[in-house]
Amino acid sequence: MAAEGDLAARVRRYLDRALEHDSPSVVCGVIRGAQEYIAGASRKGRDAAPDRRTVFQLGSIGKTLTATALARAVSAGTVRLDAPLTLPPGFTVPGKGPRRITLADLATHSSGLPQLPPNLLAEADPYDPYAHYTLDDLAAGLERTTLLTDPGTAYQYSNFGFGLLGQALAFDDVDAMVRRRVTGPLRLSDTTTELRPDMAARKAVGHLAGEPVPDWHDHVLSGAGTSLYSTAGDMVRFLRAQLRPERSPFGDAIELTQRPHFTATEHLRLGLGWHLGSLSNGRPMTWHNGGTGGFSTCTAFSRRSGTAVVMMVNTFSEGNEADGGLRPVDSLTFGLLSELVGS
């Protein structure tokens, strides 16, 4: 009981800090060995606080689900990581240098693709920038795409790349494929691009600069996590599988996602989807963050210590240069994980 009380007190401090950074509400989930704790807070008071079933938009953490689907296909022997990106006729894959883009390049942000398709934003609604984009637009955008670097040579974070990875795995069926291969077997019932009526009734409202904003929708590049919903409860279950892959339905695939596949810098390596770095105390950390126009999220775990943290807030936020470019939700997630691992 004392240990549980200590964990609750630590989480409470970080929830309060999130509210101090102008988050309307926040929910945080923690795994520490056998312990699991989820709590929320709201600027409107305790009765308005989110809980483990409150729905948030997840953002780019969804890339780790697409990467897990890739890893399952690799483990099953149906694809290879070094297989070139192949799309149906009419979808021209851009090239540069001596070799083609591979699936591993897409999953490690080393494909050379820019962050977004060149024709995405021209006609976009700034409050829902992916909603208008069609497969025809994607075909046209690929024709206009110039790679920034040779594939496999440099790290360049790319929603475009992960969107194409989803299409390469299941053309025009990405969301259903992720349900079949990942969220269904892991029983992540609220992790989906389809907002069911019961989920809508418990969804947090996204905010930008203090004002409510609509959710993001995406029918083409959703492999990047651009339109995915989830809850703290689902994310804690997902993190439990990361900490103990051998207890999951597809441990070999999860292990493959966490293995280093590309070195970006001295301090950052890439698994499949996951970023592999270090906490402030030098201990290894695996992480990914995310965001949409009205939500910001972050998840991080230390496999060695059996500890994981997820934090979700219902506001868009930008990185702070004084904090190494991290957003408040990222700094708080890493700070809590570091505190829990170091104690």
Low-confidence region ranges: none
Mean pLDDT: 96
The percent range for strand residues is 15-25%
Helix/strand structural class? alpha+beta
* Radius of gyration of CA atoms, rounded to a whole number: 19 Å
* Tally of helical runs: 10
Number of strands: 12
Cα distance spanning the termini: 17 Å
What is the topology, as strand order, of the major beta sheet? 2-1-12-11-10-9-8-7
| Helix fraction bin | 25-40%
Q: Helix and strand succession? A: HEEEHHHHHHEEEHHEEEEEEH
Report the major sheet: 8 strands, antiparallel
- The global form is globular
Write the layout of secondary structure elements.
Elements: H1 2-20, E1 25-32, E2 35-42, E3 55-57, H2 63-76, H3 103-107, H4 135-144, H5 159-169, H6 174-183, H7 197-200, E4 207-208, E5 211-212, E6 229-231, H8 232-243, H9 251-258, E7 262-265, E8 268-270, E9 275-278, E10 284-291, E11 296-302, E12 307-313, H10 328-342
Antiparallel strand pairs: 1-2, 1-12, 3-6, 4-5, 7-8, 8-9, 9-10, 10-11, 11-12
How would you portray this structure in words?
With 343 residues, the chain is α+β, with helices and mostly antiparallel strands. An eight-stranded antiparallel beta sheet has the order 2-1-12-11-10-9-8-7, with helices on both faces. A hairpin with a 4-residue loop joins strand 10 and strand 11. Helix 2 packs parallel to helix 5, helix 2 crosses helix 6 and helix 2 crosses helix 9. The longest helix has 19 residues. The radius of gyration is 19 Å and the shape is globular. The mean pLDDT is 96.
